[in-house]
TrEMBL record:
This is GDP-mannose 4,6-dehydratase. The keyword Lipid metabolism does not apply. SUPFAM superfamilies: NAD(P)-binding Rossmann-fold domains. It comes from Caproicibacter fermentans. CDD domains: GDP_MD_SDR_e. InterPro entries: NAD(P)-bd_dom, NAD(P)-bd_dom_sf. It catalyses: GDP-alpha-D-mannose = GDP-4-dehydro-alpha-D-rhamnose + H2O. Pfam families: GDP_Man_Dehyd. Catalyzes the conversion of GDP-D-mannose to GDP-4-dehydro-6-deoxy-D-mannose. It comes from the Bacteria. Its cofactor is NADP(+).
Length: 336
């Protein structure tokens, strides 16, 4: 029987790129968990294979409905689970904290409890976030795995819970669960609610003549270390296939660090429009911001040999070209 991987959140940016990576680099069958209302844009290129049941399969389910998770797990019987699904936007979590906490903490618990109740034994990756570290003092930068949690948003709090739930099931039930705290990762298919992607989208709309040459921004002073999503999913594959250790937790991230403002300048440098200005939009500012997101990934790189390969400039140009193509083919977009 072929190896089977289950990806929760396969319709998201990371999940769709992970499906692409596994299709190209393994002979596994790829099963994706999808809510009935999830947009399919990120997996449209896989539709022919999905329709033909050619190594890619979609299953309807929801982290907030445990019966649906049990049904999918019984059907798929996965060898690997990549738990990527989440309410993943920090700013939204300030206005929807209950949904964020329910989906991310209890949703993770429902998934792992379902695996436990069914007595299945897959290798499981639980995706937390670098946001768990929050506002880190300068003396603790770069951030290693033992840095204390100081979450600065309901989203970050939810990911602390996600991280701890994953480690709990590994310890309590001897399940092969590992958690990751991935730092900023981006590229094609990145949602337009994240800073670098909304910059790229707005620039593409300006180039297409759909808005005035002004980019709305939030906090430009926050430091970020960027990785390409395609490097990130390769790391996730290596996590579960290179001597997986029950209960371990890893920081993963890129090596290019700059301010959010520098990222805007990079994207503007790629634009065909040379007179674009920017203005701070108060609605894009978080009540509290995690502003020193610089990782120490020594533990993961020593364990797996992984390192980022895609240059920052290529990541940003590919992101801008992704939005140029979408604006060209899809017309109007909400102004955000």
């Amino acid at each position: 029987m072929k190896t089977r991987a289950l990806i929760t959140g396969m319709t998201g940016m990371v999940g769709s790129h992970l499906a692409d990576f596994l299709l190209e680099n393994t002979n596994w069958d790829i099963h994706g968990l999808q809510r009935w209302r999830s947009p399919l844009d990120n997996i449209m290129h896989l539709m022919d294979r999905i329709n033909k049941k050619d190594r890619v399969f979609v299953h309807y389910g929801d982290l907030n409905d445990q019966s649906s998770l049990i049904h999918v797990l019984e059907e798929v019987k996965p060898d690997y689970i990549f738990h990527l699904a989440a309410q993943s936007y920090p700013l939204t979590s300030f206005t929807a904290p209950i949904d964020t906490l329910n989906t991310n903490i209890l949703g993770t618990c429902r998934l792992l409890e379902s695996v436990h109740l069914l007595n299945q034994n897959p290798i499981i990756h639980v995706c937390a976030s670098s946001e768990v570290f929050g506002r880190v003092p300068k003396e603790k930068v770069p951030i290693n795995e033992e840095c204390s949690f100081q979450p600065a948003s309901p989203y970050a709090i939810s990911k602390v819970g996600t991280d701890l739930v994953g480690r709990y099931y590994a310890e309590a039930y001897d399940m092969t669960v590992m958690t990751t705290r991935m730092f900023t990762h981006t590229g094609p298919r990145r949602g337009d609610v994240f800073h670098e992607s909304t910059f790229a989208k707005q620039i593409a709309m300006i180039e297409a003549g759909l808005r005035e040459p002004v980019v709305k921004v939030g906090n430009l002073n926050s430091l970020r270390t960027y990785a390409d999503v395609r490097d990130a999913v390769r790391a996730y594959y290596m996590l579960v296939t290179f001597n997986p250790i029950k209960g371990e937790y890893y920081n993963i991230g890129g090596t290019y660090t700059c301010t959010v403002g520098d990222t805007l300048k990079t994207l503007l440098s790629f634009s065909t429009e040379k007179n674009i200005k920017y203005v701070v939009d108060p609605e894009r500012l978080r009540p509290i911001d995690a502003d020193l997101q610089i990782p120490d990934c020594t533990k993961f790189t020593q364990h797996t040999g992984w390192k980022p390969e895609i240059p920052y400039e290529k990541t940003m140009l590919d992101l801008l070209n992704y939005w140029r193509d979408k604006i060209k083919t899809s017309g109007s977009y909400i102004d955000r």
